[in-house]
Design a protein that fits this description.
Keywords: Signal. With 335 residues, this protein is mainly beta. The chain has three domains: 89 residues, Immunoglobulin-like, CATH 2.60.40.10; 96 residues, Sandwich (Immunoglobulin-like), CATH 2.60.40.10; 95 residues, Immunoglobulins (Immunoglobulin-like, Sandwich). It contains two helices and 28 strands. Strands 1-9-8-3-4-5 form a six-stranded mixed β-sheet. It has a six-stranded mixed β-sheet with strand order 18-26-25-20-21-22, with no helix packed on it. A five-stranded mixed β-sheet has the order 10-17-16-12-13. A hairpin with a 2-residue loop joins strand 8 and strand 9. The termini are far apart. The C terminus is likely disordered.
């Protein structure tokens, strides 16, 4: 009897743990994350049942403030729509970052959590690696000051002070020193790389913020289809000593380092490239293209940011694709 009772107790405990885990998983499944730009409106869809909406600020998560209770908005930071089906936080800023919790007043297990992240921008510009980033300043009273936060800071730690990269006296500072130019219409940051991603804040002559612009740097993308025997040309964009070249065959998923700072590695022999791969200035050439060469060539800078990618594919000659079985090219079956 004692053994039976012990087994029953263990079963009850295990069942309780499983139920608790299921409830925990259910609650975790209801958590979502939303990212907005500085100044955007945060709209929360309210469920049909009565809820209490609370907020935990990211900078002080131990403190909870009530935004809505019993169908009524508390405080002046939030407001509801006409039919009470949405709660709106107008023009979000850093102080609105944090966790928003919607609790069903009739069911304490029915909880929805929304994590809000506010990016330190009003707009975002996308520029290709090595291109010029233009920030419009038309109508902004001079002299202008430009501040910069790297992407890791502006997306997660906007409370940290920004770095002044262009002073009111027109002097450019690190990390953009020597790459900033100013005209009546715009401030230009030249030759951008992934390290320049982040937010840029424009302040006027009175020190008032006029604009916040985020920079996103994209790699150059190229899709090249060649016939057997043709030559592949890969533009490194930068000096060969400043890049690394990786190759991922279509048959594999892991990239292999082919060239490091202008020097080809021994890995080229694994793909039969040793007599066909050459470097001239900032151009890499692969001669006598084969069907087995198809894959992705990736150029990165020494900080690990992607500069360019070249997707190499096989081009079939006209007349090769006929009804029935297709041709074979150097052992490559064109199904």
């Amino acid at each position: 009897m004692k053994k039976s009772a012990m087994m029953m107790t263990v079963s009850v405990i295990m069942l309780s743990l499983l139920i608790s885990a299921a409830l925990s998983a259910s609650l975790k499944g209801k958590e979502e994350s939303i990212t907005l730009f500085h100044g955007e409106d945060f709209v929360i869809l309210l469920p049909p049942h009565e809820v209490e909406v609370t907020f935990r600020n990211r900078s002080d998560p131990r403190k909870t403030s009530v935004l809505m209770r019993g169908g009524k908005v508390i405080g002046n930071r939030a407001k509801t729509t006409l039919h009470l089906n949405h709660l709106i936080i107008k023009a979000v800023g850093e102080g609105d970052e944090g966790l928003y919790i919607l609790e069903n007043l009739k069911d304490p297990n029915d909880v929805k959590k929304i994590s809000l992240i506010v990016r330190d921008c009003t707009i975002e510009q996308i520029t290709k690696y090595g291109g010029n980033f233009h920030i419009p300043v038309v109508g902004v009273n001079t002299p202008i000051t430009l501040e910069y936060r790297p992407i890791a800071v502006e997306a997660n730690q906007t409370s940290r002070p920004a770095t002044v990269v262009l002073t009111a006296t027109g002097i450019s500072m690190k990390p953009l020193q020597g790459r900033i130019s100013v005209s009546e219409r715009s401030i230009t940051v030249s030759a951008v790389t992934g390290a320049d991603e982040g937010s840029y804040t424009i302040r006027d002559s009175e020190g008032v913020i006029q604009m916040k612009v985020c920079l996103k740097v994209k790699e150059h993308k190229n899709h090249v289809n060649l016939l057997n025997g043709e030559r592949l040309k890969i533009n490194l964009i930068l000096n060969s000593s400043l890049v690394q070249l990786y190759y991922t065959p279509d048959s594999e998923s892991s990239p292999v380092l082919l060239m490091d700072k202008g020097e080809f590695t021994s890995a080229q022999a694994n793909f039969g490239f040793e007599d066909r791969l050459s470097l001239e200035g900032s151009m890499v050439f692969l001669d006598q293209m084969k069907a087995s060469d198809a894959g992705l060539f990736t150029i990165t800078d020494l900080q690990g940011f992607t500069v360019s990618t070249v997707q190499l594919g096989l081009k079939r000659k006209k007349g090769m694709e006929l009804n029935g079985p297709r041709c074979h090219i150097e052992g490559f079956c064109c199904h």
